[in-house]
Amino acid sequence: LAEWPLLVMATHGSVRALAQILPGLQVDTQRMRANLDAMRAALPRGTADDWFDPGLAQHAGALALAQIASLQQDIERLGLPLPAGGDTARPPQRDGAVIF
């Protein structure tokens, strides 16, 4: 219990730093795809199939959304304002399909 204040302060500093850099984040999707394709080609087929299984990404996305919903409930329970930016519990979509 004595370590909680230090942990909270360290977490606050990390979250604050991320909040400052995330708005400037730019994703190079072509480069990302090239890196993923190169990694997939370098792995044995069975390993690549396991690592790049779309079901894993969908599961991770569902877990992330559940965690966001839980955090929103905690924030509301504590009477704190929710962050601006719309409904964060809704997954991103393109052409009606959920993107994970």
How would you describe what is shown here?
It is built from four helices and two strands; from the N terminus they run H-H-H-H-E-E. With 100 residues, it is mainly alpha-helical. Strands 1-2 form a two-stranded antiparallel sheet. A hairpin with a 2-residue loop joins strand 1 (93-94) and strand 2. The chain is elongated. The termini are far apart.
Keywords:
mainly alpha, 100 residues, 63% helix, 2 strands, elongated, two-stranded antiparallel sheet
Strand content: under 5%
Oligomer classification? single chain
Report the major sheet: 2 strands, antiparallel
Radius of gyration: 18 Å
Compute the number of strand runs.
2
First-last Cα distance = 37 Å
The arrangement of helices and strands along the chain is HHHHEE
Helix fraction, binned, reads: 55-70%
Strand order of the largest sheet: 1-2
Q: What class, by secondary structure content?
A: mainly alpha
Number of helices: 4
- Judging from the principal axes of the Cα atoms, what is the shape? elongated
Mean pLDDT: 82
Low-confidence region ranges = none
How is the secondary structure organized here?
Layout: H1 4-21, H2 29-42, H3 45-51, H4 54-77, E1 93-94, E2 97-98
Antiparallel strand pairs: 1-2
Q: Summarize this, please?
A:
With 100 residues, this protein is mainly alpha-helical. The protein has helices at residues 4-21, 29-42, 45-51, 54-77, and strands spanning 93-94, 97-98. The termini are far apart.
